[in-house]
Specification:
Elements lengths: L1 E2 L4 H11 L8 E2 L3 H6 L8 E4 L14 H5 L10 H5 L2 E2 L2 E2 L1 E6 L2 E6 L4 H4 L3 E3 H11 L1 E3 L2 E4 L8 H10 L5 E2 L5 E2 L2 H18 L3 H11 L4 H6 L6 E4 L8 H4 L2 E7 L4 E2 L5 E4 L7 H11 L2 H13 L11 E2 L2 H11 L13 E2 L8 H12 L6
Parallel strand pairs: 1-2, 1-3, 8-14, 15-18
Antiparallel strand pairs: 3-16, 4-5, 6-16, 6-17, 7-13, 7-14, 9-10, 11-12
Helix pairs in contact: 7-8, 13-14
Length: about 375
């Protein structure tokens, strides 16, 4: 197995102990998708992000038989997430887990003003403006800046309908008008709400020399954006004083692009072993065992492979039992907006895109 997810070692060890027909060995690859794209020889299983990229997906062995023979129940998956893997009437890869952008804040301050389990962009801007505080022409408190995290800029564009995707020629396409609408939104936030680029820059240089959660707890900032997987990185004693909501707009919560997939390369020498592991992995009892394993092995990971499971029932019924921070925070299925397929180079392309449209618009 090629992967860059260390927690899979514990899951694979458990699989190896449950049967004696197959034995999986893990080989660490920093970027499994790129490694497979240029590989001279292939593994039997690959677990990584962007495996559904158009340039890569046809390198995988179809998995339809697992559904046809009822070894995996397709009804258990988020429908739109599983649909991402159905290409030319074949399931080339299957989704394992995904993450969501979380807006983190100090507990006990603004929960009543937010309500629900998500926070819309407009509400976030409104509360940030109320929080901002100046003293003698110097900003001493700033609710939030869209420019603190480039992911916030990107997900604002996603939520406003930029519709980033790879076209039939393998090139990035998007709705330029909606992207420019997002640029205008964050530019106005910076210029009118946060007193301009230079003021934001001075505030960041003065105060952002400590972890963001300390700035939240000290009351210096109101919000910070982080991936759901990163919430567990906050020390336990600090995390108990924080809360979060999912970033949203018009009841849509964007799913992060680096969804984790599993696939069996077409040139694999042990497809039976690969399909046996995949069948085992997507059983409800296996995923429940994994959640317990995370706890007793003290793996500091969220849910399944450091994310929400691709199986909705696991998230809705089991994850909150194993991680109390998720109580009351599991989003409804119809709120989630899953991304279109991206290239294996998407992380670099996204950075360039943000720099071109958002960073160049700063005044």
């Amino acid at each position: 197995m090629w992967t860059n997810h260390a927690e899979l070692a514990a899951y694979v060890e458990n699989y190896n102990s449950t049967q004696n027909k197959y034995k999986i060995e893990i080989v660490y690859k920093p970027d499994p998708a790129r490694a497979l794209l240029h590989a001279a020889s292939v593994p039997d299983i690959v677990v990584g992000a962007y495996l559904n990229s158009p340039s890569l997906v046809e390198k995988f062995y179809p998995l339809n038989r697992l559904f046809r023979e009822k070894k995996i129940n397709s009804d258990l998956f988020y429908h739109d997430l599983l649909s991402m893997c159905f290409i030319d009437k074949k399931y080339r890869v299957l989704p394992i887990s995904f993450n969501l952008p979380a807006v983190i804040f100090k507990r006990g301050k603004i929960e009543n003003e937010i309500g629900g389990l998500d926070i819309p962009l407009d509400k976030m801007k409104e509360l940030s403006e109320k929080f901002n505080q100046k003293r003698a022409r110097r900003v001493i408190k700033m609710g939030f800046s869209p420019y603190w995290e480039s992911d916030f800029l990107y997900y604002t564009a996603v939520l406003m309908g930029a519709n980033f995707r790879v076209n039939s020629s393998g090139l990035l396409s998007y709705d330029k008008n909606n992207l420019e609408k997002a640029v205008d939104f964050v530019s106005l936030w910076e210029e009118k709400t946060n007193f301009g680029f230079e003021t934001e820059k001075s505030f960041r240089e003065k105060y952002f020399n400590v972890p963001y959660y300390k700035l939240l707890l000290d009351g210096r900032i109101l919000f910070y954006l982080a991936s759901s997987r990163a919430i567990l990185d906050i020390p336990d004693e600090k995390r108990s004083a924080l809360d979060f909501r999912w970033l949203s707009y018009h009841d849509n919560i964007p799913v992060e692009d680096d969804i984790l997939f599993v696939g069996i390369p077409s040139d694999s020498k042990n497809k039976r072993g690969g399909t046996d592991f995949i069948s085992w992995f997507f059983k409800l009892e296996t995923q429940r065992k994994i959640l317990k394993m995370n706890s007793y092995k003290r793996l500091r990971v969220l849910g399944i492979c450091n994310g929400f499971s691709s199986i909705a029932e696991i998230n809705e019924r089991d994850m909150p039992k194993n991680n109390e921070m998720l109580l009351g925070h599991i989003p409804p299925r119809n709120f989630l907006v899953f991304p279109r397929a991206k290239s294996v180079n998407w992380d670099e392309e996204k950075t360039s895109l943000i720099s071109k449209y958002f960073k160049s618009a700063q005044k």
